[in-house]
Write the structure tokens for this entry.
Amino acid sequence: MRPITAGLLGLACLTTTTMSASDFLVPASPETKARFLALFPADAQLETIAEGLKFTEGPVWIPRLEGQPGYLLFSDIPANILYRWTPETGAKPWREPSERSNGNTYDAKGQRLLTAEHESRVVTQTKLPSGQREVIIADVGGKKFNSPNDLVLKGNGSIWFTDPAYGLGKRESELGHESVWRWAPGEEPVQVAGESFEKPNGLAFSPDESRLYIADSGIDRILVYDVEGNKLTNEQVFATDIHADGMRVDTEGNLWSSAQDGVRVFAPDGTHLGTIRTELQPANLELGGPDGTDLFLTARTVVYRLPTRAKKAPTP
């Protein structure tokens, strides 16, 4: 595989490599083999769709809008660029500078992109397809956040986001803690949803939004909480020995999580079904594509795509 420069990323003729399913789909045990392999077509191949990047994050699939085809947006944090990818155009800069954007999510009803930004230390919304950006969560009591990292949207319109210190660099924390925050339009101020974390990172709601998964990268585990109104209760350890970052939940309630060895897939009861092994360690992932069944992995300097039989739990 030849590395390509950022200037060539828009070429549709990008040379890619593929791997057959037997090379990278690894069931966790003989008992879970059938359940795990049933999540993928028999001829599934892992494909590199973009490369030559710096550190990719925050993939989100934007569905068809106003007659325009759907597309993938993803962040390249060190490059300070948000990229737009389609099969026809490849990856092209969509917003530059991006305020070192990290996590992104999409509000299907309001047609807006929500973004956690490291450089500006805020959460923004962008109207689609116009691209008009607006800061919606700026600070808490006049103090800046550390570096908003990942975010999810609940059906009632509230935004939940993590705020570790990963993106602070040499800047000092004004808060003194790394927490999960919750905010809803018309509410002031933003509220702490949970603060007993070392490095809160990825977030994902269960399909019925009764539970919230939170990756704590500081202690290599995934926690799950009951969601009662604005509060998180009944903390439980969902998975251990996993350096989790981004996560997604499918319509069946399975949790797909980035990990040190690829992507691990868990049943709703916490059973590890299997692992998608990748050459480069993924930081985040998304289920999307024209049929909603393509798994996109942002993995260091590349972006992978893998066909599945799963679909992401619906966006509110």
